[in-house]
Write a structure and sequence with these properties.
This is Glycolipid-binding. By secondary structure, the protein is mostly beta strands. 4% of the residues lie in helices and 53% in strands. It has a 14-stranded antiparallel β-sheet, with helices on one face. The protein has one domain.
Length: 188
C-alpha cells in the first residue's frame, strides 16, 4: 500500500484551520511529520508532530510541539506501555495508539492496526494529546468496520460518535464535524 507523499485536511465545524502531513516509509513502518493550526472556541493553537509507527501500525515514538506549549516526547514499546518525557505513564497501559486532538490524520493508524473485517468492532484505547497544552490522557475509543472505507467511531468520554471515511489506501478523508481531506496530494 502506498500513501501519497503528503496530504492535507481542512478543519470544519468544530474549528477553523488546516492540517498538513508528509508520509515516509521507515523500517517497514511509517514516519509521519505534520503540522496543524486552528481556532477553536476563540482559542488559537498550533501543533507540529513527528510520529513513528511500526509495520503493525502501532505507535512507537512521537515528538510533539505546540505554540507556546512545552515539547512532548512519547515512547511506546508496542505492547501497551508508555513513557512521556522519559517518565513511565501507567495511566496509558494497554493503549497502542496515539490520538492527537489537533489531528484528523491520527485516526488512520488504528484502522490499519486493527484490520477489522466488515461488521467487526474493536476497542482501541489511545493516548490522547490535547492541542492547547499537550497534556496526555487515556481516551477510550471504538471502531466498527461498516463497509469498505467506512468505520463507525465513538469516544464516549466526549459523547461523540460519527462515521469516519477512508480512501482505498486507508488514509482518512472525512472526519465529520472535525476535518475533510483536501483533494490535492503530492507525490508517492
Amino acid at each position: 500500500m502506498t500513501f501519497p507523499g503528503s496530504a492535507a485536511w481542512r478543519h470544519e465545524d468544530a474549528r477553523t484551520g488546516f492540517e498538513v502531513a508528509r508520509f515516509r516509509r521507515q523500517d517497514g513502518g511509517w514516519l509521519v511529520e505534520g503540522a496543524t493550526s486552528a481556532v477553536e472556541d476563540g482559542v488559537a493553537w498550533a501543533v507540529r508532530y513527528s510520529l513513528t509507527v511500526d509495520p503493525q501500525w502501532t505507535l512507537r515514538s512521537a515528538r510533539i510541539g505546540g505554540l507556546g506549549a512545552r515539547e512532548l516526547t512519547v515512547e511506546a514499546d508496542g505492547r501497551g506501555h508508555w513513557r512521556l518525557d522519559g517518565e513511565p505513564a501507567p495511566h496509558l497501559d494497554g493503549c497502542l495508539d496515539l490520538d492527537l486532538e489537533a489531528s484528523a490524520m491520527t485516526n488512520t493508524f488504528p484502522v490499519h492496526r486493527l484490520a477489522l473485517p466488515t461488521g467487526a468492532r474493536a476497542d482501541a484505547p489511545a493516548a490522547y494529546v490535547r492541542a492547547a497544552d499537550l497534556g496526555v490522557d487515556r481516551l477510550e475509543q471504538t471502531y466498527e468496520h461498516l463497509s469498505p472505507g467506512r468505520y463507525a467511531y465513538a469516544a464516549p468520554a466526549f459523547g461523540f460518535a460519527c462515521v469516519l471515511e477512508y480512501d482505498d489506501t486507508g488514509l482518512i478523508t472525512r472526519y465529520p464535524g472535525i476535518a475533510v481531506r483536501h483533494p490535492a496530494t503530492v507525490g508517492a
